[in-house]
Protein 1
Amino acid sequence: MLFNRLQSFSDVLPFFYKLAFVLKEVITIKANFVLNSIMMILTEKESFADAVYDIVRRIPPGRATSYGAIAKAIGYPNFSRMVGAVLGKDVSSLGIPAHRVVNSQGVLSGRLAFVTPTKMQELLEEEGVIVVDNKIRHWKKVFWNPIEEILLD
């Protein structure tokens, strides 16, 4: 074991200094991420939601995108779960086609946020999207990349 190889207290001290330094770096990185997340939530929550809604409104019928693609497109690449939280509310009354947003594999992961567990699939199928076992068939063809598609507008 490590401690059996250490000969004296002077051998232990550098090890603990290195360990403390590494732990400090890890804690600092995690703390900064959490702090940035909290600041975003407190100061930009409404504009974040508006940006999500703007992207989702642009998804054409018969196409779908992912939470992560939307997060990247609005400048928050690590906030795909936050995109999901925004769309997890009842947004159909706002004219937001949330049924066109799925996870990165094409799975209808947000289906339980709809009126019934099958409503999301029904809406997609009405637009010609084939769904099998809660997953979009031919996902790569159906996928709408907002970064590429919006630039072409």
Protein 2
Amino acid sequence: MLKKTPGLTTAIFALFFLISCAGVSQQVPLKTLVQEAENRVGEPVTLGGYILDTQKIGEKIYMTVLQTPLGVRGRPQPENTSEGNFLVAYNGTLDLNDYRRKRQVTVAGKIAGIAKEDIDNCPRPCLKIESSDVKVWSERARTPGRTGAQVSG
């Protein structure tokens, strides 16, 4: 016979609640995020897709990404599922050789509004994400490659 434990029940409920809420931001369509960008500034978001361009300007790295929905493990889906492009601003250093065109990335950060920068491959209006973590996926395996760990470059 199973003994009910209030603490265990609460912990299990909390775990399921956190898991169900974890994907909320990635379920909002990119077009909606663009339309509501100014009202969502500061909101956490996780987006993914395929790198179109990466460039270092000053102390920041700017990455233009062809958005695609994220799969169960957070890996971007095929390119033909894209809703458009978005801009990532990463304050730090990354090895730009790892973050090259057509690589899959998953980006966690906060919505910074509509990009004011004039960046190639990001037609206006272009959603801007101030990123705190960028994960580039392995090209061969279906497991994560390098993470947002800072690497000199």
